[in-house]
Amino acid sequence: MDVPHHGGVGKLLGTDAMDLIIVLHHHDTNDRGHFAETATGLDHAGFVVPARDDLVAWQDHLEGNGVARADNADKPLTQSPIVDEAYASVLVFRDPDNIQLELFAPVAR
Predict the structure, then answer these.
(1) What is the phi/psi pair of residue 7, to 5°?
(2) How many Cα atoms sit within 13 Å of 2 on the Cβ side?
(3) What would you report as the CA-atom Rg of the chain, rounded to the nearest whole angstrom?
(4) Ramachandran sector of residue 99 (left: φ over 0; alpha: ψ -120 to 50; beta: rest)
(5) Would the pLDDT of 6 be above 70?
(6) Do the Cβ atoms of 83 and 77 come closer than 8 Å?
(7) To which CATH superfamily is domain 2-106 assigned?
(8) Of 67, 72, 82, 94, which has fewest CB within 10 angstroms of its CB?
(9) DSSP result, 40-107
């Protein structure tokens, strides 16, 4: 399924049960350079949780461990509000190294 996303488009690939999901994302501002193992290249990692309520629990858990709530998760140790998309609810946060991580609750089918 094609997934519109701020700054580009993604392709969501998943099992019928949505228990394994891979999203390939193209950023409109990408310089078209090739991937190199010696350069920073991870966009983000996402992990599936069973339901949206789990995202709410994770927000509290993250905040209790120093990950501040913010309008955008754009700095180390920040988390976004939960965003409800047509395909899933998503909570984005960043680790101390500023790597973006997502918790993803697929919409029940």
Answers:
(1) 90, 10
(2) 4
(3) 14
(4) beta
(5) no
(6) no
(7) 2,3-Dihydroxybiphenyl 1,2-Dioxygenase, domain 1 (3.10.180.10)
(8) 72
(9) ----EEEEE-SSHHHHHHHHHHHHHTT-EE-SS--STTEEPPPEE-SSEEEEEEE-TT--EEEEEEEP
Which carries the bigger pLDDT value, residue 95 or residue 37? 95
Render pLDDT for 18-75 as a digit per residue (tens, 0 to 9): 676 666 666 777 777 765 656 666 677 888 899 999 999 999 999 999 999 999 999 9
Are the beta carbons of 44 and 99 closer than 8 angstroms? yes
From residue 108, alpha-carbon distances to 18, 31, 32, 105 in Å are 9, 37, 36, 9
- Please, what sign has the CA dihedral across residues 81, 83, 88, 92? negative
- The CA distances from residue 82 to 29, 85, 93, in Å, are 25, 10, 10
The b-or-e profile of 81-93 (16+ CB within 10 A means b, else e) is: ebeeeebbbbbbb
Task: Identify whether the C-beta of residue 10 lies closer than 8 Å to the C-beta of residue 23.
Answer: yes
Q: Break the chain into its structural domains and give their ranges.
A: 2-106
